[in-house]
Amino acid sequence: MRIFGLPAPLVALFMSCASGIAAPRNSTLEEEHNTQIKASHDNKPPVPPNPPPLPPPRPLVIWHGLGDQYASAGMLEFIELIKEMHEGIFIYSARISDEPNADQKAGWFGNVNEQVAQVAEQIAAIPELEGGFDAIGFSQGGQFLRAYVERFNSPPVRNLITFGSQHMGISDLPGCKPTDWLCRAARAAAASGVYSPWAQKNLVQAQYFRDHRHIGSYLHSSTFLADINNEIPEEDDDEDEEPRIRNLTYAFNLASLDNFVMALFDQDQTVVPKESAWFGSYALPTDDDNDVDKGAIIPMRKQRLYKEDWIGLRTLDEADKLFLIVCQGEHMRLTDECWRPIVARWVGSIDMDKVTEASVPQIPSLLIQDW
Ligand SMILES: *[C@@H]1O[C@H](CO)[C@@H](O)[C@H](O)[C@H]1NC(C)=O
Ligand SMILES: *[C@@H]1O[C@H](CO)[C@@H](O)[C@H](O)[C@H]1NC(C)=O
To answer: Please, which of 62, 71, 252, 334 could form a disulfide with 367 given CB 3.0 to 4.6 Å?
Structure first.
């Protein structure tokens, strides 16, 4: 059900979006390329009859999205395509349960903080990953992997890639297909309050629900997203509460990435607002009342979280390690044009010759996820 063969639309991958949020960069790529060329000229060894085999590509961890599970047909196909691109790569598909139905259910119901800790434990126990790895998060899997980086990062992530993730949360719950009972059950349960202590421990989407209309409730009650975003209530907000402080480890760990790549789907109607994929959010009442009514989007670089560098985003950006990418289409429509150049460049070891080869046009089946 999640796999369709669709004609590949013409996509300008590093196209910047109309709002001007994205400043695509490729100087790093050029520099790397030049360095490689330079190295080969400067220091030419005698050509051996049999060149030593290349080291295996850096391993990869993938975390699937909501409605999906770690070994679905779509996930397995995506993993195979990456293995074709990066021969010999080790790939681990993160999961909450080895049992596919239970893993799928855990995308809706469970305690995200515990889920991330559980995956961190798995990762730490896999020998292939001990030297570090790249990570790809689909949709909510993206902010979960970011939480891994901020809180654990042992072994460390080198390149973090997220597709259509909800880094600045969601302001609305996803709609449900009539037959999707897990979705409907979660939605019904959320009706009694996304910020109730129960919802914040049991409903996954509630744990990254960021209600811009009631930001105080979010800051006080969000057990997951407000924490990994280092968003804390204003000091004099509530005198009874123990004052919270921002966790510097989170910023330090995220800033230690080689690259942080965030893809946004330009037709995304599932994530509200879709700019959350790039740390955008609706304006808060404190930003400007008029903007709130109009549903204005505060882009990443205008967020306090960025400006005051609460989680290391600004450090990454100023070091040219932050990439905002547009993928054409609806939520998680992973076209060839969308994922291939990203995976060629930021997954495994960088091999510029292979990058050009991989961009030979072809139309494979696409991965479509519900969320
Ligand atoms: C990216 O690289 C291309 C080809 O080298 C170059 O023409 C273009 O100006 C570069 N873009 C940016 C934003 O650096
Ligand atoms: C910050 O996060 C790290 C990693 O999760 C944790 O070990 C540490 O206790 C946290 N520090 C504070 C002040 O909460």
So the answer is: 334
